[in-house]
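Researcher: Re-running this chain for the archive, since the previous output was lost when a drive failed. Same request as before.
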Amino acid sequence: MSNTYTEDHLIEQPAILLFAEIGWSTVSAMEEVLGSSGTLGRETKSEVVLVRKLRAALERLNPRLPSEAINFAIDELARDRSAMSLAAANREIWDRLRDGVKVSIADRERDALTAAGRQH
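Model: Regenerated structure tokens:
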């Protein structure tokens, strides 16, 4: 007889069903293949940010941003917050997701024109 009072039975499986009902895709990482081309794109199981999916979402939401801006946003969203309280870390991530990550990138076209102007 199996024990129905397990975290898997009481929490994980109902959550998976709920996510599927609202249209989310789910994957079991119990047999996860690690590596950049693996199941979730993680190098180790301790990585909590699925960078491959985050990058795809940021590129879809910000199609005109250069890759350096996307990389900066990923670095900011995935940076270590272990010294913060859980509430503060969650609040900071929520603020970044809700309001966006402020990035500053060089205007290469303007810089190239300025550099070209200095050469004359």
